[in-house]
Amino acid sequence: MTVNGQFPGPTLEINEGDSLIINLINRGRYNVTLHWHGVRQMRTGWSDGPEFVTQCPVRPGQSYRYRFTVAAQEGTLWWHAHSSWLRATVYGALLIRPRDATKYPFHVQPARELAPILLGEWWDMNPVDVVRAATRTGAAPNISDALTVNGQPGDLYNCSSQDTAVFPVKSGETNLLRFINAALNTELFVSLAGHNMTV
């Protein structure tokens, strides 16, 4: 499953204090919910998204409207499916900018912000089937067939686009990078070859 035919799904960019209204129309074959990972749901718990915890799943052919305000939060969050392992392909970035975009909480203000970097996994079969197979045996689910950066598995795979994840930078310039680990079953570590990185 994907969102609007995109993998990863669309990046949502908002300012602190903004209200979001998201209309989910499930055209897939599985039940699905969306979870706004890290968003404090103040009096809007029904928009939090965990299936059978804060809401019933949205069945195929049905729709649901998420409505909430992001207050007193800034930074890099993300949204993802919260049903089975649909999170393997249904996810995206949620960027919450400060009300005053010139006041990031860094010692050195970034010269520019690069596109978010979403790290994920790819299976050569339906991830839902991977989990079902594991529950039959009691073993852990199989590891993924590839890791992805912004939905692309890299130069070793013919299905990757030519511009897998290229971010040109200028020497001596400070850039803001936003990393999101959307992997389901793997811990990922990140470094930037030949560059200093401050977290």
UniProtKB/TrEMBL annotation:
Plastocyanin-like domain segment(s): 1-100, 116-199
InterPro entries reported for this sequence:
Cu-oxidase-like_N, Cu-oxidase_2nd, Cu-oxidase_fam, Cupredoxin, CuRO_1_LCC
Q: Which Pfam families match?
A: Cu-oxidase, Cu-oxidase_3
GO terms of molecular function: copper ion binding; oxidoreductase activity
Q: Which domain of life is it from?
A: Eukaryota
Tell me which positions the record assigns to the signal sequence: none
Recorded family membership: Belongs to the multicopper oxidase family.
Question: What is the name of the protein in this document?
Answer: Laccase
